[in-house]
Amino acid sequence: MKRILLSLALTSLLTPAMADEGMWMLTDLRKQNEVAMQELGMLISANEIYNPEGIAIKDAVVHFGGGCTGEVISAEGLVLTNHHCGYSYIQQHSSVEHDYLTDGFWAMNREEELPCKGLTITFIDQILDVTDYVQKQLAIDPDPQGTNYLSPKYLEIVAQRFAKEEQITTKPGRTLELKAFYGGNRYYLFVKTVYSDIRMVGAPPSSIGKFGADTDNWMWPRHTGDFSMFRIYADKNGEPAAYSKDNVPLRVKKHLTISLDGYKKDDFAFILGFPGRNWRYMISDEVEERMETTNFMRHHVRDARQKVLMGEMLKDDAVRIHYASKYASSANYWKNAIGMNEGLIRLKVLDTKRAQQEALLARGQELGTDKYQKAFNEIRDIVKKRRKATYHQQAIQEALVTALDFMKIPSTTALATALKNKDKAAIETEKEKLKVAADAYFASVPYPEVERLVGKEMLKKYAEYIPAEDRITIFQVIDKRFKGDTDAFIDACFEYSIFGNRKNFDKFIKKPSLYRLNGDWMVLFKYSITDAILATTLSTASLTEAYNQAHKTWVGGMMELKESQGQAIYPDANSTLRLTYGTVQDYEPSDGVIYDYYTTLDGVMQKEDPDNYEFIVPAKLKELYNNKDYGRYAMENGQMPTCFIVNTDNTGGNSGSPVFNAKGQLIGTGFDRNYEGLTGDIAFRPSSQRAICVDIRYTLFIIEKFAGAKHIIDELTIAE
């Protein structure tokens, strides 16, 4: 009877996974999810989503730029993603004369499509569960008790070994990626094809693509047309190739069918994408650590930097264009950190975590094993020991690495070595190399006056949070030579350093000296930062190894516990292709407040504020609204839909993900989450977590009616 009661208690503590919770591996869909998805309303088979023996919906979903998701929507390689995913590439082609960020961009023919330097789009050709193979390789490893089970370098060797044995061929553009899942308890191999000739096709103006900007970011209701389009080019044989005028649009093996039918509340929906990171298997001590280190620093340090940047961006259009992408990226996870901490407290997530961990510890006792208790104690002890170093690491990362573009100065180590050795040939060689690197550096920081202001604010912020005795070594110089005046130190960097301005560098490189390098303020500043990063990393290196071992045991226990209760399991997100499913749903953020599951163009007009850059509405859009010129994209009631929400399990990296209806047809593009659901990276709450999506009808309306790019519409497969 006691065993029965205990089992019931464990089940009550760990509520079975809801249909809308989970970032599921495609290889497990038929076994784990197909029945539940069909019971929820899905009208297709799992095999139509993922078919290892043939073509399926999966083959039209791509990894966009390594950090977002995209979907192929035409036979000629047209890819739809978010505006904010394409933002840096829109910025890449923007200038004061051609301000595509402000005005939008539409290629009216193939010749006008713009090559995007550095952008790649990746298809997932195969997904293979290679757990047994990897475990056999680990067993014969020279250090079977070591940490190779998580080592990317080691796993790359194993991947190549497996590919050779299984006759999986690789070639230019075709790559392998072997990744650990569930803390190293399982392994999957991804065979990929990577295309690098990607061209920008279309993007709405920021007044549509970023409507609401920082104010509406992570919020619902939303009215943002967050989309952009790019095209994949390949050589004449359809193979990946570097940019060439001779390349042609890729003839894809699968593109999506678009539905104009819309959706109703409770309609089934699923999303495919590449979620970045979440941490569902954290214990409560780790959650507290995240709140008080990473989230704390992102909140307060980025807040200070963004105020400086925005002040300068509003003064000068050229400055605005240069910093637009950097600002947007910073602001995104600044607000995320704030919302996550608020939600973790409001929803009492720490209590949930404590209940989960007590359940596993109780199961260990029931089974007569102490391995879970030992792993739990080890993790708690490690979190306590690394706390100070982690806090300092986050302060350095946010204030001195991420925030300071001028700290990306070229390395002078090779030149210094040549000067020390008095090697004339080497000196000349390294001088030429440094000239090239310096050209790139000065081009990357065209507004040193802005960098100077940011630098002053960031040093103050860093010093505010880190005690004097723990600060990076450059503060010894600041205290001694500048009497503790961080502003004076930053001014000296820009006035006297060889990288402070072009004139200083040109003078130095004509006659370089070791003395000059050894006393250069910027060089010393950079060394101070890198030395501190190394020191904090080394101080926790042994703890990291121990943590990984304990975490593997802990996650393995959670897997066993869920499986014993008949629950399906899914791994933490790690930027690999996943499926999440649920329904179109409204929600109640607080007592007496209900948020509907969709928004319309009416809301855009209601939010309009011509004095606030975040809520400017283009004149053409107002004209279309006033005339109700929506074409075939309006709802039955005559309104123009803009966005909708689904209760799927999403995180960063899902931006740009295709949203499908029960038939597997495209109905929207995911682009954000709601503020109340930001705790989802740590603990999923189906009652409050929602994925925010652009309605595909709004996307097509903007393309056809606003932009006049009917030729793009003609390229698509649309189900009326």
Give the proportion of residues in helices. 40-55%
List segments where confidence is low: pLDDT < 50 over at least 5 consecutive residues: 1-19
Estimate what percentage of residues fall within beta strands: 15-25%
What is the CA–CA distance across the termini? 59 Å
Shape: globular
Rounded radius of gyration (Å): 27 Å
Number of strands: 23
Q: Characterize the largest beta sheet: strand count, sense, and whether it forms a barrel.
A: 11 strands, antiparallel
Give the number of helices. 26
Report the mean per-residue pLDDT as an integer: 94
**Main structural class:** alpha+beta
How would you describe the overall organization of this protein?
With 720 residues, this protein is of the alpha+beta class. Among the domains are: 284-408 and 445-549, no CATH class; 578-719, Thrombin, subunit H, CATH 2.40.10. It contains 26 helices and 23 strands. The strands form four sheets. Strands 2, 3, 4, 5, 6, 7, 8, 9, 10, 11 and 12 form an eleven-stranded antiparallel beta sheet that branches. It has an eight-stranded antiparallel beta sheet with strand order 1-15-14-20-21-22-19-18. The model is unreliable at 1-19 (pLDDT under 50).
